[in-house]
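Page 42, continued from yesterday. The earlier attempt failed because a stray header line got pasted into the input along with the sequence. Redoing it now with the clean sequence only.
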Amino acid sequence: MNTRRYCASNRPDPIANALRWLAATSTLPALVLEDFANSGQSPLVVGTLFDVLKVPAPVGTRVLEQLQQREAAMGPLLADSDTGSVYILIPPGTAGSWQAGGSAYDRAAATTLLVPIPGTTRSGRHWLNPPDGSGELTDPDLLAEIVAALLQDAEPADPGAALPASIHPLARDTVKEA
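This time it went through. Structure tokens are written below.
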């Protein structure tokens, strides 16, 4: 795959920049780019350029909305319609001390994250906020504040009570794999 495509204005293509950044998670970035070229997706090693926070899709969507409302810097968010989850890319080293809720993964978890080319959907996954190649990730302190508040709102006062319709039942589940 030629990742050096250019737009009409001679600026580098944002998708090519994103692919180069995603490929940099590997010690063999050419293989990641080959995966993208052949299948439109590639498994990336978590914990190199980013850790990952996995939350239920309704929580992830609300995180996106709140970050936009606050006009906060926002890193990539990946939706997975097959699992009803959103993966939020967070700074490396964040997952080890994450306590705000959701499931956090880092290099120690030996996890890979299957990601599609930005602008496409593969294996039920698509970017809600695609990477732009800059490496910018969501501020973990702000993210922790938002996620904790959303998950607290999702917990029923009575453990036998139903969750609000706006929060998917997976809000209380722990998933072991990203």
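Notes: Residues 14-155 form one domain.
Reminder to self: strip header lines before submitting.
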